[in-house]
Fold:
Amino acid sequence: MENPKYKALFDYLTHISQQYQLQICILDYQGVTTRDHEFANMLHPFLLHRNPYCLYIKQSNKRLFDRCLCRKDVAEKGEKLKQPFYGMCYAGVEEFVVPIFHHDELVLTIFAGAFRTRQKTALYRMKKIAKAHNLSYETMLEHYYSSLSPEAVQPELINSLLSIAAQYLTYIFTDAVSQFPPSSVNVKKNTHSDHILIHALEYIHNNYCEQIFVAQISEHCHCSESYINHMFKNKMGVTLNHYMNQLRIDRAKKYLIEADAPIKEIAMNVGFNDPNYFSKVFNDLSGCSPTQYRNKA
Structure:
């Protein structure tokens, strides 16, 4: 059962991102919202920068990955200004930034972009990164021009749109704090494991229909397999394998209700090569077989 308050926020962010061609990202400096598994599951598409240029930079090496995750410069500027602003990151990406405070402390930030209106400055920064980290400047240019918009949305419009999301997030954060006492939350800013969790979730949701190995996820997140396993179990309350199976079974249930495809075909569509194993996992997690579930629907 989807949480209606998270569904409403997801639908709103989806609408404005599609309507105005915005790439929206929510950054939690406290690691509170990601303690809520429902929030992390439903809002994961909006919990990391997903445009190809940003992904290319982050996946190039661990140093750049860590730098993109932390965004300490944005936190410092948000705390200083205490109001929305427009800026460019170290890699040349321009975004609107909306800082969100709780008891005068910066807790969340909404990013909305991604634009390339100041190309001269951006290209200079890109050349520095390419040289310092031995990256292909030509590949960076390709991603930069193909995934960033040459025109920014009008500030008045975007501030109006994002203020609604910010207010909603303020309520969600306040509610999350009431659920998770300070002793249970890592209040260190820019908690690295929370950002890694979001990248792991994104990888899983994008690839669940194929066979996924922990080694692939750990490589994607620039960390060890043991760290990924331990971190995921600690934050999500279940193992990686259990989470992936549950995701696949949830998708399979939709297929069973909405389509007349054979069980074997549905199993393949959600990442199970063996239909017998699919039926076993389905029964273990749902308490009935795929056929029984379809007949009940």
